[in-house]
Design a protein that fits this description.
The chain has 193 residues and is an all-alpha fold. The protein contains 8 helices and no strands. Helix content is 65%, strand content 0%. The radius of gyration is 17 Å and the shape is globular.
Amino acid sequence: YQYFDNKLDVYRWLMFDELAARKVDFMRAHPPPPSGGLFVSFEHLLVVGMRWAVANPRYVRVAEWSLHPGVFGDLAPMAREVHAMTVQGMRAWLEQAQNAGEVRADIDLDVAAELTAIAMRQGLDALMRRRLGADLWALSARSDVALNVEDDLLRAVAHELLDFLRAGFGTGHGSDMGLDIDSLPNLPKRRES
């Protein structure tokens, strides 16, 4: 605590450095398939992210506030920053998919990125509540239940969410590209082991 000016600085460090680095390290350790298309890669990373979340309930509870738009007070600027970073990452992914022929050329990538970011927050929570009976916040409060959630069920939730995106933005054509998560903006650098 002595290295920070206030509690908000501690929270900022926890969100943008510690938590982000741990999650990205986990995702790097479970990379998507090298081919199969960017939607397939993104679906894989979504499953890996959900698996990380249920295995790390304390971090999920710390970060959960940033997933919802009603944040106010001292956390509001940080919530806007998290949202902007998410949208920027979604846009980079969608641009890669568009360049690979998986996303329609007539799609406004800025609007699509905003919609995708919202889908990753509220849409994923809604699907999880319907398919699993609990969203990530609820699962993080019950790690005894969360750790027993089958990967097949997580894959089904991710696939359903990505099907909505494919239907809205996709061309119906896959590609052989895979997604290198290190090509996306705002990710923490690799930590030395």
